[in-house]
Amino acid sequence: MAQQNLKRRSLLRVTALGAGAAVASGAVGRQQALASYGQVPNLAGKTAIVIGSGFGGAVAAYRLGQAGVQTTVLERGSEGRAGVIATHRGDGINVLSGVGVGGSSLVMGMSMSQPRRSEWDQVYPAELPFDVMDQTYWPRARQNLNATLVPAEIQPAWRATVAEFGKTPVPVPFAKDSVDRNYLAWAAATGNVIVQPLHEVTEIHEISGQDGFEVRCKQINEHGDVLATKTFTCDYLFMAAGTVYTSSLLVTARARGWLPRLRATVGKGFGNNGDFLVVRLKLRKDAGSAQSTPGTVKFYDDNNPFAVAAMAFESAPSWTGKASAHLITSMAPERGEIRFDPVSGTGKVYWPYGVMETKGEKAGRDLATRLWWETEGKKGRLLNGLPNYDRNAGHGFGAANTWHPLGGMVMGQSTDFNGRSLDYNNLYCVDGSLLPGTACLADPPLTITANAERCLDSFIAAHA
To answer: How far apart are CA 243 and CA 86, in angstroms?
Structure first.
């Protein structure tokens, strides 16, 4: 009944204009991929399962539905309860992610920033050219997610501080239309997609002698009690459970012998996007005591001695308006991995640096300290704007947590450059696990969405 309710409410949300805009935006620059798809000949009668309903999973559901593929989306979280955050306690780092129909789009900080060419070309291979993303896929993702710029008069105190530091404030597009309001609603409108909330996938098996898969899951209630166990089969499997859970399911399937052909690179290349959280205290300028959390203005620190970095305003309301939170990201080189943990029987993040000083942490501390010194300290205001990034403070400061886990099924290592597994032809990844540990000084949602669009274009074109 839950999936029927979602389908009915989703249909009500899709106006003729909205549905038309969705199809039109899907047509940008890809005639060869059957712009609005229709019935794709070689996908007629095929079935797909999408595990996860966040940015990548929602794109996959919509594009598969457009193509006439009978698609089931399995989501471990509930429908209609935004703000649910799951914490994966890894070895050396904690990972936070959204859980619910809409995934991390339900709890994201609204930032839809795009990488710069300078960082993109350092990390991403020629098979993913910046110009293709810049001209087709990032614009399409922005349009479909309804990303807009905040007016210039917003956040004047932070803009003034950035200018005082000698940097250029860079406005960042933001969006808070979670994907249940766009992609998933459009997917339901195709008539080919059903979302199954509160279905937690536990096992993935290859079907002997076939290219399809068997997916086993627990149907749970909102308290985690198991109501039933279910088994689904499909021709195509799209992994979109988020970096940690996609990789965890796959390394577990490899270790258990359920997907024995998966190569050793699966689970490797995990990165934290250079996340470093800092709060500035006792501000002179009023940051506001009643705010939401769009990180809408950032600046770049190209001369950081440890790693190129960026710093964004992530407003955290305080009673006095004299404190502000900021997320620093850097091009830090450190990487971990997601391994099968025999104790828990599932995957676990291993971040081998622990409390060691990584380049990412050094870059974050250096930037936060220089900002304080240039805008407050050297002017004699030693107690104003003091940065706190102590990971032991209990609030996830510094690099204790990451909100932007990436990697584990990195393109060119565990998948091809269109997200298809190098070991199983009908297994695809379309979430942050494809990205090589960094979104290049940007929050990942825009790039995850854009890359999923690109991967689905390739998938549909290959079956035309």
So the answer is: 13
| 173, 149 Cβ separation under 8 angstroms | yes
**Cβ contacts of 356 within 8 Å, gap of 6 or more:** none
What number of other Cβ atoms are within 10 A of residue 216's Cβ? 14
What does each of the 464 residues of the chain score in pLDDT, given as a tens digit? 444 444 433 332 332 233 334 433 443 333 333 345 566 778 989 999 999 999 999 999 999 999 999 999 999 999 976 557 889 999 999 999 999 999 999 888 778 999 999 999 999 999 999 999 999 999 999 999 998 887 777 778 888 899 999 999 998 887 768 999 999 999 999 999 999 999 999 999 999 888 999 999 999 998 899 999 999 999 999 999 999 999 999 999 999 999 999 999 999 999 999 999 998 988 887 766 555 555 578 999 999 999 999 999 876 555 556 788 899 999 999 999 999 999 999 999 999 997 678 999 999 999 999 999 999 999 999 999 999 998 877 667 899 999 999 999 999 999 999 999 999 999 999 999 999 999 999 999 999 999 999 999 999 999 98
- By C-alpha distance, which of 9, 58, 106, 3 is closest to 450? 58
Contact present, 447 and 138 (Cβ < 8 Å):
yes
Residue position matching structure tokens 């501390």: 365
Return the CATH architecture of domain 2-102+113-130+178-270+404-462. Answer: 3-Layer(bba) Sandwich (3.50)
Long-range contacts of 379-385 (CB under 8 A, 24+ apart): 381/284, 383/282, 384/282, 384/283, 384/284, 385/161, 385/280, 385/281, 385/282, 385/283, 385/284
Overall size of the chain counted in residues: 464
pTM for this one?
Answer: 0.90
> Which of the four CATH numbers 3.30.410.10, 3.40.50.800, 3.40.1440.60, 3.40.50.300 does domain 148-172+275-331+359-398 have?
3.30.410.10
**CA 406/CA 80 separation, integer angstroms:** 26
